[in-house]
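Quick one before lunch.
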Amino acid sequence: MLIERIKEPCDLKSLTPEELKALADELRNAIIERVSINGGHLASNLGVVELTIALHYVFNSPVDKIVWDVGHQSYSHKLLTGRYKDFPTLRKYNGISGFPRIAESPHDAFGTGHSSTSISAALGIAEAGYRKGERFKVVAVIGDGAMTSGLAFEGLNQAGHMKRDLIVVLNDNEMSISQNVGALSSYLSRVLTGLFYQRFKKDTKALLEGIPGIGEAVSKIAQKAEGSLKGFFLPGGLFEDLGFNYLGPIDGHDIPLLIETLNEIRNSTEPVLLHVATKKGKGYKFSEEDPCIFHGIGPFEVDTGMTQSEKASAGVARSKDDCVPFCDIFGTALTEIADKDERVVAISAAMKEGTGLAGFAGKFPDRFYDVGIAEPHAVTFAAGLASQGLKPVVAIYSTFLQRGYDEIVHDVCLQNLPVVFAIDRAGIVGEDGATHQGLFDISFLRHIPNLIVMAPKDSYEMRAMLRLALEHNGPAVLRYPRGKVSPYALLGVRPAAVEMGKAEIVADGKDIAIFAVGNSVYPALKASEMLKKDGVEACVVNVRFIKPLDEACIMELSGKTKRIITVEENVLAGGFGSAVLEYLNLKGVRDVEVCRIGIGDEFVEHGTQALLRKKYGLDEDGIYKTAINFMRIADPRRL
Ligand SMILES: Cc1ncc(C[n+]2csc(CCOP(=O)(O)OP(=O)(O)O)c2C)c(N)n1
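Model of the thiamine diphosphate complex:
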């Protein structure tokens, strides 16, 4: 196999054009096989196989730096840069990451996971080389989806101005996760289809012919000069105007053409943008047909394209909310509410499917806004809508909302505007790893005045909290995890109605009080059952409101038990447990001990959710062990 012979990218250079083509097939097969077992980003990776080969053929990584945007398409890059042997560990705990990481390989010039950073990072790298007098090339590879972000344009803006030696490869497959949207996307489509130039020709002809006396003659000359006109007015004018030399669009699956073009560009010392057209999902029938489903996917069967969970649930009847992902409960609940209230609108930043809003978008196309990968804009756009009496719901993953922090403070909360934030993937997300864990949102939201922060533990609370958030005349947050809801029937009792600022006691006990946030309530309940066997009666509180805190409940239970454990899938610094400590401190309570379970001062790496929850003591065993130790220290004679 050729792929086994490539230990370093320079090994590519001795391959013939036929061998490079055969290598592309091998890379594709390796990626399909591995993703079918480990899960991962399939369609984006299959689309850039040839481009990756050509880049590594022409440039000399790691001296030359290739900066991948998002980094979800870097599997071929990993396979060609000495990680073929480790590829089976992709996205597994202690294995190689699904994204580039500086710590993983010298060939990973810049770590990513969030989109649209590549141009800024590559420009910084190029500028550093320039200042240090070092000679190397820097290539940013960015998708048309990632290009819709303001951050990408901030990078282009400075790069075009500084005129540094920088190459931007725009990998245009006309898809973000789903169909790319927006004016930029339409512009790129016109460029790809050649319509831009044709329309220009038509408009120019009409314009010239309209000039009295000389118009027709000039138009004829212009037609003759079409070749040079084309040179002047090639598509890509947008990038030219921003200070880049534009080249393309070229076929991103034609290795010889890519190599020839990149070799040309290599000699440039000014910013160049090469526009390549690729097919997302290329080379695997099912991902070509449905690149959106195969964008990020769990394990699947190669022959049928069916995921393991699809296979498992085929033909199995389900009760309404049983084992449905939180995001789907959210999407359905929002659609139901919107049916009765036409002021309700929904906003997504290029994550319609992931956030469960596809149904809403289908039913209310003119009340659904996909703003592209532009989280800060999504927040401020929502603030504008809310200022005029609409009820916007912004659905964004916890990790990506980090981008919108100032907009939440300045545009929404400061003006007390009724924007609802549906924060999905809050907590441990699993195999996507450190760039995607949603472990900061409680800390970066809890301190903002006017904001209400809720965490539903199940489908009942998701619905009730969403209603409450939309009725509330101010900003509100719902944070909920990746994964399926536990049916509330598990509790064996009907849940108490959701009331503003009120926690729910789900198990009584006098020895210790466990305050659990959202999806940590069920493991806390199970831990309380284990504790019972040791003679420890734990009271379990479903926090529901991180803000406002249920102060009365904290006071009462701390007085009764003198021992509090808090459990949250968030960093400890500034989290819910911190809020409890702050409150007790404020009230001068000195005789209550608080033990907090959450994430310490570290980034959480990739691994399954179950494994990571175990590692950080967030599962039932972890909560049980913490509680037992806590009780032993507090009362050594008892246990
Ligand atoms: C800031 C941020 N928001 C959202 C995402 C989720 N996301 C990952 S890939 C992607 C689409 C990227 O599209 P494009 O850049 O065109 O790359 P393609 O997958 O089509 O190759 C999105 C929205 C992200 N990674 N970062």
